[in-house]
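ugh ok fine here u go
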Amino acid sequence: MDKMVPLPSGSIVPERDLGKTPILETHHLGIDFGGLNAVDDFTISVGRTEISGLIGPNGAGKTTVFNLLTNVYHPTRGDIMLDGHSTARKTSAQVSRMGIARTFQNIRLFSNMSVIDNVKVGLHNSINQNLLAAVTHIFGYRKSEKKSRDEALELLDFFNMADMANRQAGSLPYGAQRRLEIVRALATHPGIILLDEPAAGMNPSETSELMENIRRIRDTFKIAVMLIEHDMNLVMNICEGICVLDHGKVIAKGTPDEIKSNPKVIEAYLGKKKEDK
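structure:
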C-alpha cells in the first residue's frame, strides 16, 4: 500500500493520488429525519484509486451515507463533489452517469433475467441508441448490441463468470450473485464504486477471493472503491484509509493501524470500560 498523506481538510489520500482531484469529496454533509440528526458534519476525501472503508457499529449511519452519496436521499446540509462536480439537485440516475455506482446489503439483481442481461442493464449508460433504432434494428443498433454483449462477457470473464452468462441470475450460488452485482456496477463505468457489506454471508474462502477481486478492480480499472463492512479482518487488510461513524458522526479517520489503536473506536465498538474500583 502507498503511504497515506494528510489533506488540509483533515482527510488522507494515497500518495499516488496527490495532485489529482479527489474522486469523491463531502463537506459538512448531514441529513435530518424529523428531529433526528441521522448524519452530521460528514467530511471526507477519497483519492482517485483509493480503497476506503466506512465502518461503525450497527445503526451508526453508514448506509444512510451511501444513500446520500448516490442521491437516494438529498442532504439537509453540506455538499457532495464527484470528480470535482457538485451532485446537488441531481437524480440518482444522473449521479450514476456522473461516475458513482453501488451494491447493496441485500442483493438486488434481476433474478429472472440471465446473468449477461443483468450486466447489460448496467451498460445502458454507455450504449448510445434511440427508440427507432431499437425497434427497427437499424442505425447501428445491431452493432451496439454486439458491443454491449462483448463488453458484458469481458466483464464476466474478469470474475471467471463468463461460463455462467446464460444462466438465470437467481439460480447462482450466493457468492456468485454477490460477484454479479459488482460486475453490473462496474458496467456503468464508474470512477468510484460503493460496496455495502460485500462480504455479508460469505465463507472465509469467498471473503479471501473478494479481497483479491477488490484489489484487481482498483488496479485494472484505476478507480476508487469505498466499502461498508463488518468483517474487520477484511477492512484492516484491504483498506488504505478508514472513516469511523458513530451515531451519525465521524469519530475517527486514519490508516488501519491508527484506527485499530484509537480509543474512541474501541469504545464505540466495545463500550466504555468501567473504572477499576
